[in-house]
Write a structure and sequence with these properties.
This protein is of the alpha+beta class and 196 residues long. It has two domains: 31-122, Hemagglutinin Ectodomain, Chain B (Alpha-Beta Complex); 124-196, Roll (Nucleotide Exchange Factor Grpe, Chain A, domain 2). It contains four helices and six strands, in the order αααββββββα. The chain has a three-stranded antiparallel β-sheet. The protein has a three-stranded mixed β-sheet with strand order 2-6-3, with no helix packed on it. The protein is elongated, with a radius of gyration of 40 Å.
Length: 196
């Protein structure tokens, strides 16, 4: 026996450890209960790791979704600030229709088209209102005109253009709405009651 092997045996005896049978350095076989316990701990750690990975993936997705929403809110704020510019273009193009201003009008139209193309690429769209049925989610009634020529609640004229950013209304369309005179509105229910 060599001197180093003798020292290892002495150290093992001092610590009340058993000396393994067989070659030095090999561990004794683990009792079956200890093996079951280690496998249970390993399975528990594996499940914990899987849960942590799922939690992290959900967190990453939520952060990405929040970042995307914050970006959209920033663009919406910018678009809201640019709406008066679009209104200014519309008023300038409607006010000057004489021959001298024709070249300037073409320039305004080109600039307006370029601006509109950029804004619509980022999700801005006009709210269609004229000729449509009044919808308080998209329209703001500023004036009522009594008429029987059109159905009650039809938008006659757009006084100020409304806009949406994706599905969110940035500004409702300010409109003039057709309403039936009070005499016609009263006749209708009586006719329907008589039919019943």
């Amino acid at each position: 026996m060599t001197e180093s092997e003798s020292k290892k045996i002495h150290v093992a005896r001092d610590l009340d450890e058993t000396i393994p049978e067989g070659p030095l350095g090999s561990a004794p076989p683990a009792p079956p209960d200890a093996l079951v316990k280690l496998q249970a701990e390993m399975n528990e750690l594996r499940q914990t790791l899987i849960l942590r990975q799922a939690d992290f993936e959900n967190y990453r997705k939520r952060i990405e979704r929040d970042r995307h929403e914050e970006s959209r809110r920033g663009i919406a704020r910018l678009l809201e600030d640019l709406l008066p510019v679009l209104d200014g273009f519309d008023r300038a193009l409607q006010s000057r229709a004489d021959v001298e201003a024709d070249e300037h009008r073409k320039g305004f139209l080109l600039i307006q088209k370029q601006l509109w193309d950029v804004l619509s690429k980022h999700g801005l769209s006009r709210i269609e209102a004229e000729g449509k049925h009044f919808d308080p989610h998209f329209h703001l009634a500023l004036d009522r005109v009594e008429t029987t020529e059109l159905p009650d609640g039809t938008v006659l004229e757009v006084l100020q253009q409304g806009y949406k950013f994706h599905d969110r209304v940035l500004r409702p369309s300010a409109v003039r709405v057709a309403v039936h005179p009070s005499g016609h509105a009263e006749e209708r229910p009586n006719k329907s009651k008589a039919a019943n």
